[in-house]
Amino acid sequence: MDKEPPSISFLENLDTDLILGFAGIFALLFCTAIVSGAEVAFFSLTQKDLDDASIESPEKIKILNRLLERPKKLLATLLVANNFINIGVVILFSLIGKNLFENIASPILKFSVEVILITFLILLFGEVLPKIYANRNHVRFAKLIVFSIAVLDKLLSPISLPMRSLTIYLQNKLGKQKSNFSVDQLSQ
Q1: For the chain, first and last CA: distance in Å?
Q2: Backbone φ and ψ of 108, nearest 5°
Q3: How crowded is residue 50: how many other Cβ atoms within 10 Å of its Cβ?
Q4: What DSSP character marks residue 152?
Q5: Tens of pLDDT, residues 118-152
Q6: Rounded CA gap, 16 and 10, in Å?
Q7: Predicted TM-score of the model (pTM)
Q8: Cα–Cα 20 to 30 A to 100, which of 5, 13, 68, 180?
């Protein structure tokens, strides 16, 4: 009897849970990248950017303006969404990490490897790269994702509205802090 080609034996050894886990992590990292990029893109838009873009995409800019009318609510929505997504990434990675790192005997080393790896993945693909891209292409990025963020804003309103109210309350209660440093002192 002939031996099976290596590609077929490789496919037989693949763990479906592992593949689905990686697909889920990839999807969640993509979502966190979108939300992180949205934070930078939306809050870097100037009125001139919005005016220029409204000629080409009036409906998108109308929605963008509506979202930007309540910046604290928008920020709360983005932060809540990002935290939920990142928690999902960590949970999924923890589940597949049991199989992925089963050869590591020390639980402390296993945990450390998992934490370092997932932290690196979230920071690089979910925070740093999307924010750099969104900063350089803020108008295009904002127009591309405005509908998704508007839906997210509606879905997370029960959480983001109380957060916004609490933030405003705390700002009023604590007052604006004055800085004792001048720009000249900081530049020295």
Answers
A1: 79
A2: -70, -45
A3: 16
A4: H
A5: 999 999 999 999 999 999 999 999 999 999 999 99
A6: 12
A7: 0.80
A8: 5
